[in-house]
Design goal:
Blueprint (H helix, E strand, L loop, with lengths): L3 E4 L4 E4 L7 E6 L14 H15 L3 E6 L6 H10 L3 H18 L15 H13 L3 E4 L2 E4 L15 H6 L15 E6 L14 E3 L1 H13 L3 E7 L3 H16 L4 E7 L2 E3 L2 E2 L10 H7 L2 H9 L7 E2 L2 H24 L10 H19 L4 H19 L7 H21 L6 H16 L3 H16 L3 H13 L2 E6 L2 E6 L2
Parallel strand pairs: 3-4, 3-9, 9-10, 11-13
Antiparallel strand pairs: 1-2, 5-6, 6-7, 7-8, 11-12, 14-15
Helix pairs in contact: 2-3, 4-6, 4-7, 6-7, 8-9, 10-12, 10-13, 10-14, 11-12, 11-13, 12-13, 15-16
C-alpha cells in the first residue's frame, strides 16, 4: 500500500509521491529560542520524528531540516530584560532545547540551521522578490505585495478581501495593502542588525524559513510541517515568498499537527496553565511524554488531562511489565522458532501497523495493534511454572516485535526493570503506599508459603490484591508489581 498523507492545502489524503523517486526533502518549523519550550512545542518534534523514521523504514532517503529562529522580537525583548545580548539569549536556549531533545532520545535531524547563518540567502531572496515585482521598499523597510502574488490564501483558504477588511491586521499607512507583510525591517536603536541594500536591518519572520528551505533543500520540497497555528500567516506567507521568487511550486504536502488541551482548556499564559516540557519530563519521564504525544492522532486535539496521563502511565506499565518478563524468559533455552499461532499473530500485527502508519501516520491504531500482541504474550508466557523452551522462543519473538515498533516511534528503549520500578514508585505514590511496606508484606507471605501456612499466605495475597499489588510466584521466589 502506498503512503497516504493528509495535505492541509487540499484538505484531503493524497498518495505520497516525492519529487525525486526514493528521496524525501522535509522541513519542519523549529522553535524561536528565547525560553524553555512548553509541552505543546514538542508535539511537532516527537511526531515528525516518527514521520521521518517511518519514511526511512519504507525505503526513502530523508533529508530532515528543523530550524532555530534566533532573530526575533521575543529574543530581543528577553535580552533587554536579562541585560545581555540577543546572541547570548538565543545560544543559551538552543542549548536548553537540545538538552530536552536529547532527553527524549529522538533521532537527530539532518540539519538544524539558524537564521543568523543565512543572512546572505535571505537578502538575495528579498532582492529577487523586488526584481520580480512582488515586493516594494519604503524607507528601509521591504514589504511583500500580496496582490502581486496570484493564489495568496490557498493554504489557509482565507479570502484576501476578508483579510484586508479584518480589524486584527496591523495598520501601517506606508503599506500598499493592509495584508502586505515585512520581508526586511529597518534597524531600530539597540536592536541587532545586518547590512543590506536597503540599509541596516533584520529579516521579517516569514522570509527566514523560505531562505533556509531554499538554501538547504532547493526551490521545491516534498513535506513541510509545523503546528496548526502556523498555517496563517506564517506558512501562507512562506508559499507567497518562495513561489513569488522562483515561480515553482514550493511544497507538495503540507502537514500540521493539532494543539493541546489541558482538561478541555487550551494552554495559555492568561490561564496560567503553560507548562515547560522540561518540568513535565522531570516530574514524569521523557518516555511518558513521548507515548502521550503519540497516543492521539496528530491531527486531533491532544488532551493533557490527569485522566489521560493516568491512562498513558497504565499502558506503559503494561508494556514494560511484558518486556521485563520477556527479557527474563528469553534467557532460558529456547525452541528454534516461536509457535505458529504466535508468529502468525505478530505478522498480522506488523501488517496492521504498517497499514495504519501508511494511512496518514495513525499512531493510536499502531498502539492498539501492539496491545493485541501483548495480550497474547501474557496469556502464553505469564503462567505458573518454569520457563519452557516454547515460552523462551515466544519471549524472543515478542522482544524483537516490540523493538521493531520502538525503532520508528522512539519508544520502548528504556531498561524494562529499571523503568518499571520507576513507574511502580510513581503509582505507589499515587496510592500513598511505600515500597518498603510492600516488600515486607511480600516477604511475610513468602515465609508463610515456605512454612506451608497456606491460609495465611492466601490471606496476605488478598491483602496485597486489595492494595492494588500483583504477586507472581516462581521457583526463584515471589516478585510483585503494581497492578496495571
Amino acid at each position: 500500500m502506498a503512503i497516504q498523507i493528509h495535505n492541509s492545502q487540499t484538505q484531503k489524503k493524497e498518495e505520497f509521491v516525492p519529487l525525486t523517486p526514493g528521496e524525501v526533502k522535509m522541513y519542519v518549523c523549529g522553535p524561536t529560542v528565547y525560553d524553555l519550550l512548553h509541552v505543546g512545542n514538542f508535539r511537532g518534534p516527537i511526531f515528525f520524528n516518527l514521520v521521518r523514521n517511518w519514511l526511512e523504514h519504507r525505503g526513502f532517503k530523508v533529508q530532515f531540516v528543523y530550524n532555530y529562529t534566533d532573530v526575533d522580537d521575543k529574543i530581543i525583548n528577553r535580552a533587554k530584560d536579562d541585560k545581555v545580548s540577543a546572541t547570548e539569549i538565543s545560544e543559551r536556549y538552543i542549548q536548553e532545547f537540545e538538552k530536552d531533545f536529547n532527553a527524549l532520545k529522538l533521532k537527530k535531524h539532518s540539519h538544524n540551521p539558524k537564521v543568523t547563518e543565512f543572512m546572505p540567502e535571505i537578502i538575495a531572496l528579498v532582492e529577487q522578490l523586488l526584481t520580480n515585482g512582488k515586493a516594494y521598499e519604503v524607507e528601509g523597510d521591504v514589504y511583500f505585495n500580496v496582490h502581486a502574488q496570484p493564489g495568496y490564501g490557498k493554504l489557509s483558504h482565507k479570502n484576501l478581501e476578508d483579510l484586508e477588511s479584518g480589524v486584527r491586521i496591523e495598520v501601517d499607512a506606508r503599506k500598499k495593502h493592509a495584508a502586505d507583510f515585512a520581508l526586511w525591517k529597518k534597524a531600530k536603536p539597540g536592536e541587532p542588525f545586518w547590512p543590506s541594500p536597503w540599509g541596516e536591518g533584520r529579516p521579517g519572520w516569514h522570509i527566514e524559513c523560505s531562505a533556509m528551505v531554499r538554501g538547504l533543500l532547493g526551490d521545491s520540497i516534498d513535506i513541510h510541517g509545523g503546528g496548526l497555528d502556523l498555517i496563517f500567516p506564517h506558512h501562507e506567507n512562506e508559499i507567497a515568498q518562495s513561489e513569488g521568487a522562483t515561480g515553482k511550486p514550493f511544497v507538495r504536502y503540507w502537514m500540521h499537527n493539532n494543539m493541546l488541551n489541558f482538561g478541555s482548556q487550551k494552554m495559555s499564559k492568561s490561564l496560567g496553565n503553560v507548562r515547560t516540557a522540561r518540568s513535565f519530563m522531570q516530574e514524569y519521564h521523557p518516555e511518558i511524554f513521548k507515548y502521550l504525544m503519540l497516543s492521539a492522532h496528530y491531527r486531533s486535539i491532544l488532551d493533557f488531562s490527569p485522566e489521560q496521563l493516568e491512562h498513558v502511565i497504565a499502558n506503559l506499565a503494561r508494556i514494560y511489565s511484558a518486556l521485563a518478563l520477556a527479557e527474563k524468559a528469553a534467557k532460558a533455552p529456547a525452541d528454534a522458532v516461536a509457535p505458529a499461532d504466535f508468529t502468525k499473530a505478530v505478522n498480522e500485527a506488523k501488517a496492521g501497523i504498517e497499514a495504519s502508519l501508511d494511512d496518514d501516520f495513525n499512531t493510536p491504531e499502531m498502539l492498539a495493534r501492539l496491545f493485541e500482541v501483548i495480550r497474547l504474550f501474557n496469556n502464553l508466557v505469564r503462567t505458573p511454572g518454569p520457563v519452557t523452551p516454547k515460552k523462551a522462543a515466544i519471549a524472543k519473538a515478542f522482544l524483537e516485535f516490540v523493538h521493531w515498533v520502538g525503532g520508528f516511534s522512539s519508544l520502548f528503549i528504556e531498561t524494562p526493570d529499571k523503568f518499571l520500578t520507576f513507574l511502580d514508585d510513581m503509582l505507589l505514590k499515587k496510592k500513598n503506599l511505600k515500597r518498603e511496606d510492600i516488600d515486607r508484606l511480600v516477604q511475610e507471605r513468602s515465609q508463610a508459603r515456605a512454612a506451608k501456612d497456606f491460609a495465611k499466605s492466601d490471606e496476605m495475597r488478598a491483602q496485597l490484591t486489595q492494595l492494588g499489588i500483583a504477586v507472581q510466584d516462581s521457583a526463584q521466589g515471589s516478585e510483585w508489581e503494581v497492578s496495571k
